Amino acid sequence: MDQGGRIRRAEGPVRQAGSGGALRLAGFASSALWLVLALLAPAPALGQAEDVVAPPPPSQPSWIIVPRIDIQQSFTDNALRERPGRERSDTFTTIRPGVNIAHQSARHRFNLDYALTRVQYARFSEENEFRHALRQSSQLELINEALFLDLRSAISQVTIDSGGQVSADEENSSNNQRTVATFAASPYWRYRLGRWANSELRYSFNYVDFITATQQDSLSHRVTETLSYGSEFTRLLWALTLDGSEGRFSSSSAQGSRRVSTRLAELSSEYVINQYVSALASVGYERIEDRTLDDEPDGVIWTVGGKLRPGPRSAFSLVYGKRYERDYWSGSASYLIGPTSRIDAEYTRSLNTTQGLTTENLSFLGLDEFGDLIDRRTAQRLSLSDPSFNVSSNAFRRDRAQIRGNTQIGRSSFTGLAFQETRRTDATDEKREVIGASFNFGRQIWPMTRISATLRYTHTDYNDAASREDDVYSGSISLSHQFGTSLVGSISYTYFNRDSNDRNSDLRENLVTVGLRKSF
């Protein structure tokens, strides 16, 4: 339960792929939880007896543990996610016990949220299932202003095939989803070279486990040294980056195991011409070894560009160069409309894999004003992958342009996003382009009552032999009311419509959910 009277759902559903997958998942969750708690529990000072440490004052407990339980009753007119004309309705009950654990001290911040969900259908018992959801973030300062440790982990569910069976809401089960567990550990050392330079040496360990034999797991080690300008530099701003990684994808039923590695050395600079204009440039060397790429990058990389600052509330940048054996473009723009309103836009080009994006997304796990774990980029629930694209272990070339705006007007909040993204996979000669937009609205209509609404649209061009194209429209509206300090009720309606030029892929669903959450 949050302080604004909102109802927050747990992470997406997790379908068990048999007893072996369930045991692996339970083992991962319990081991990770106990390991993190054991390693990060505050220890007594050196030479000080543990029994003489004064307990924290009652008003500021060291650890805050809040158990809860959610009970929901839902009705769907398309329980099995069939095409129009073949829908079958059903009602299902969701019981979700969970716990939130939080700790904050001068050198340690720890947050964990875990929920176990049981879904029980009235008619289609084959859809009954258990699901796990975990989000954990921890930052520990081991040596004052020098040595730090970040730990993050998540258990969630991802859509395997964006063109397959999907649901109006993640709370409705789908056999087109798989459980993914992710863990990241990153110790790093920061130090200053007087007023001339600042340095950060970071090691990163990342593990992605799909808890299924049909998807490839990945494990990687990465070392990065960043040396950047100090306070002596006011016009010439610079950074030297040395980066290397080694990773391995496990064998699956469809693909054998493979090794990937990257090496990067890059010197980037910004020369401040005046308060309005800066010149940007970079030069370096990059090598990427991945056999799923037709052209494995190996050679000199460079960029040139500029940055404009027309006023104190706006900034624009654009660079052009050579990278990934292709022309390279990157740009960004931001405008601060007011104290609570801004617009941001960016265009990026990169090489990646689904596992790599999963790890990247996990790094943006953070806290909102209520202490809830969210994606810091969107202020929404963290999603480990993009449901508009398939899960793929092959490397793909990614081009994404997006513009995002948000504003707060009194008790109302508005967020909008428009984007275009293209992914090209060398190994399968596959290209997919998605154009989309979303709009979110929330308002505290009474002190204890909140209304929220979401609208989304995407157009997907599969660029396949069948020339398939999909238009997806979805929307939801929900009302939540806080009956007391620990009881919140909610009711929501969700509509989903996928209109495809392949009639067998059409899909429509209406979903109504009534729920209660009790915290203890």
Secondary-structure blueprint:
Layout (H helix, E strand, L loop, with lengths): L18 H22 L22 E14 L13 E15 L3 E14 L7 E15 L3 E13 L17 E17 L3 E13 L8 E12 L6 E14 L8 E15 L4 E13 L8 E14 L2 E10 L2 E13 L2 E12 L1 H9 L2 E3 L5 E3 L20 E14 L2 E14 L4 E17 L2 E13 L7 E14 L4 E14 L6 E13 L1
Antiparallel strand pairs: 1-2, 1-24, 2-3, 3-4, 4-5, 5-6, 6-7, 7-8, 8-9, 9-10, 10-11, 11-12, 12-13, 13-14, 14-15, 15-18, 16-17, 18-19, 19-20, 20-21, 21-22, 22-23, 23-24
Instruction: Note the beta-strand portion.
Output: over 45%
In percent, how helical is the residue content?
under 10%
| General shape | globular
Biggest beta-sheet profile: 22 strands, antiparallel, barrel
| Topology as a string of helices (H) and strands (E) | HEEEEEEEEEEEEEEEHEEEEEEEEE
Catalogue the unreliable spans: 1-54
Backbone CA Rg:
24 Å
Mean residue pLDDT: 86
Could you tell me the number of beta strands? 24
Number of helices: 2
Distance between the termini: 10 Å
Derived from helix and strand composition plus strand pairing, the structural class reads: mainly beta
